[in-house]
Amino acid sequence: MGDFHGFDTAKIRTMAGDMKNAGPGARTLHGELASVLRDAQALLKGAQPASKSPVLEALIPQVLPLLYAGLPASLHAELDTTADSIRRRCAQLDRVHTLEEQGYSIDPGLDFDDEKAPDKKNIDDALAYFDDHIDDSGGFLWENSAQGAKEVLKRFSSLTPTELDAVMSRMSVDQLKKLNAQVGEGSTFWGAGDSDGTVKAQWVNLLTSELGPTTLARMQSTLTHLPWQPNLHTDYVKNLKYQAIDGTLYGPSGDIDLPKDMSQGDDGDCWFLASLAAVSARDPGFVRDHIKVNPNGTYTVTLYRAPVPNIDGLTGQPVEVTVDNQLPVDHSGKPVYAPTPDNVMWVAIYEKAYAQFSGGYQNISGGLGDQGMHEITGLPTTLTTPGSMSLADMNQKIKEGHAVTVDSVPHLNSVDDRLVGEHEYSVQSVNTEAHPPTITLFNPWGRNSEKMNPPVPATVTVTESQYQQYFREVSSTKTRA
């Protein structure tokens, strides 16, 4: 199709074909390398390894290297996968080019996305569906002015991100005004009622996670009845604003490093951050499995809504919450809640998603670990007292994969200046072999602990008798079903 936005898709497709053709040779190459390494190892007679590379060491013991299926021979599959992705992206780019020639506007940020190529018919059908259904309601006796917005939402959710972007970009000013009015209304009885918060949240999630950045910015300024950002003010701080913060989800290693990454800011959500610390410490892969980076650079976090009525033993329902990288900052541009030490974002993104989930940052101030861990994992939690859970009991729970938090008694700092009263801690470990047994706790203040007045350590170890004296509640849960 020639050059479009700097891409020549014909040449790129040729490159993808070359990669696919090279894949089968990778297995033979690695087999030959394994044979050389095994011969070298035999000549060395165990005096030293033939290679100290962790990748190459895996090849040395292979008896049949040509049949080797693990790393690094997986290059064969990786070449296939990459070539297929490139071909899909080329199809996407070509179709976007065609649509733009036909007068459709699509955010350039989506031009080379790895998704099913957009279909003009889907775009036109969605626009027609909007006109036919946006005014739908629940009837005369129980009017639901948001019914049309809910039906359109369901239809638009079936579109690819590029198709959705084209639809929203093509909507007229009058259509957008009508959509904004419909999501601002809701279920009524004889004309009285509140807007449907669930429908609003679902619209925000859909548009935030899928639209290109330019189209999204336009929708945020036009659809003013949608709660694009959680309320950013609390009883602790005022006069804040949202500002985009550049960073990466995780540190250079790609792993979670709690002492470096976690640091509570000026919100009273120690209970939530301690819950997050406890879950991620017990299950390091949990956070990665519950934060998805969207193609447009936003983040979708999976949280869990407690069943109604909240019956012990029932699992929560998953709720996807999509947020961007804009965080509440003060007049100097400094994040005021969970900060981003070394530009690591995962804690701040999780906290923002939970604030959106809860209706604002002010609504996550104050709580206990059982609630936090339930809404993070969706699994049943246990809330008990130190008198009902010995350190031996807790140690057994930790061995079984439970995350555990503890809540301290008031005015604890006057008794033990290492600790903070009425504060939630995550449990790092229990040592039942010590005399007496001990428990090691992590303060979600993290790096900020040493900056407090007075300063306190981020990690504290106390004896079993101190645990019984200093803490009033213990929360625990499994991290996986």
Describe this protein's structure.
The strands form four sheets. Strands 8-13-9-10-11-12 form a six-stranded antiparallel beta sheet, sandwiched between helices. The radius of gyration is 27 Å and the shape is globular. Helix 4 (120-133) runs antiparallel to helix 5, helix 4 (120-133) packs across helix 6 (161-170) and helix 11 (270-282) crosses helix 14 (369-377). The protein folds into four domains: 3-97; 117-222; 241-377, no CATH class; 382-478, Cathepsin B, Chain A (Alpha-Beta Complex), CATH 3.90.70.10. Helix content is 41%, strand content 14%. The two termini are 50 Å apart. It is α+β, with helices and mostly antiparallel strands. The model is unreliable at 63-73 and 187-194 (pLDDT under 50). The longest helix has 36 residues, at 9-44. It contains 16 helices and 13 strands. It has helices spanning 9-44, 54-57, 75-101, 120-133, 147-156, 161-170, 173-184, 197-210, 213-222, 258-261, 270-282, 286-290, 346-358, 369-377, 391-399, 464-470; strands at 3-4, 7-8, 241-244, 291-293, 299-305, 317-323, 326-329, 382-384, 402-408, 424-431, 438-442, 459-463, 471-478. The active site is at 270, 423, 443. Belongs to the peptidase C2 family. Keywords: Hydrolase, Protease, Thiol protease. InterPro entries: Calpain_cysteine_protease, Papain-like_cys_pep_sf, Peptidase_C2_calpain_cat. Pfam families: Peptidase_C2.
Write the layout of secondary structure elements.
Elements: E1 3-4, E2 7-8, H1 9-44, H2 54-57, H3 75-101, H4 120-133, H5 147-156, H6 161-170, H7 173-184, H8 197-210, H9 213-222, E3 241-244, H10 258-261, H11 270-282, H12 286-290, E4 291-293, E5 299-305, E6 317-323, E7 326-329, H13 346-358, H14 369-377, E8 382-384, H15 391-399, E9 402-408, E10 424-431, E11 438-442, E12 459-463, H16 464-470, E13 471-478
Antiparallel strand pairs: 1-2, 3-7, 4-5, 5-6, 8-13, 9-10, 9-13, 10-11, 11-12
Helix pairs in contact: 1-3, 4-5, 4-6, 11-14
